[in-house]
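WARN no homologs supplied; continuing
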Amino acid sequence: MKFTKIAVSTATTAVLALGLAACGSGSSGTDANGSASTQPSAAASSAGPKYAGQTLSFWRWGDPTPEQKAVMDKVVADFEKDTGAKVNVQWSPWTGYAEKFQAAAAGSETPDVTEIGNTDVITWAGQDVFLDLTDRLNAFSGKAGISQGMWDTDTLDGKVYAVPWMAGDRAVVYRKDWFKELKLEVPKTWDELIAAAKTISEKKKGVAGFEFNGGSDMMQSLAPFIWGAGGEIAKNEGGKWVSKLSDPASREGIKFYTDLITNYKVSPVASLGRNSIEIARNFANGKTGMYIEGSWAKAEISKTNKKLSESDNIGTFALPAKTGGVAPQFAGGSDLAIGKDSKHAEAAWELIQLLMTEENNQANADAMGLFPTYGSLLQSDKYKNDEWLGPFAAGLVNGKGLPASVNWVEVDKNKQVIHNMLRDIVQGKKPLEAATDEAGKQVEELLNQ
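OK structure emitted
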């Protein structure tokens, strides 16, 4: 998904719907794979005044809330005190984001540090806008604490161009009161998910047990089913993109998803054109029992039914993988990059390291209404004990991204390859095998052009 979609639907919507530690010796935690990981201390602490006289530009996006600004000001103050450098934080509206980057790139005036949507990193890196951070990251002690799936979205041709900073994903939003009424347990496998959806559809006449998302943000709902069956969408093998849509595991995930309409009949055919915002309205009006959405779901539900959004009758659970456990979720969000034209690259890297201490990572995510990127933080009691946010954090521990190709937008948005594949299957125009084979060929042609 493009940054204008991810950043607005994840960060901006969350903020609008609601709407750090100083340099130290670092802290230890558990990384995304459960291994011990020492988080980076603020590298600036050893820099002294060596950056005195330098002024770094830092691009942020959106209209900051007082809390967001306070967190940012605290980090900047710590950095300036310890390094002697100054930081000019420039907040700009989401609208005009792409144009601002294009102008900066054309004029060789890219910022020293910038917030960048993780699905846009590869696009801009492919246009030689960001510095290659690979060597710096090899010595970055926090690297192991962030899931490989998040790093993949920042990697082009084996080189890493950004650091995962804030994350957002999706989970299953459901009617807790209906589950209680119908004596349903939170599903732990696909079989249990369908059993619950069927019960809701049968007992609550005219209700979609589990709503299929076929709209503009369909990939964020479909991908976890492919991954949850052990499949992939496409992989770069030896410098060439190869479709995995026809692999047995991928087909299994796609079949399960389309079967919500065709076989299980827990979602209507009309869902082929609905995105999560439209589905939220159905949920708010009592027409949907479960659907996939982000942590900002209450804000969307509130627009139609504020009483429901503020009640204890709705909850979330992590989408299960096929046979159990948590399915990897699409990890959207914002990352940190250094502009290719930066004259203060070393100072810029130290600022990024300070932003990436565990405490600053958590504080900024909290202020933005998003999640930190370190597995140790995502698995902390802060989220384990939070009934609403916990399932989202669980899905991010092994969060993944869509194929990290500069041409993915051609597959997903411009040509709508995956959308068309699902429509062909649901409408009976092509069997699963033929539809996935044809879509796979298109994916390879577009990604390798």
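The longest strand covers residues 55-61.
OK
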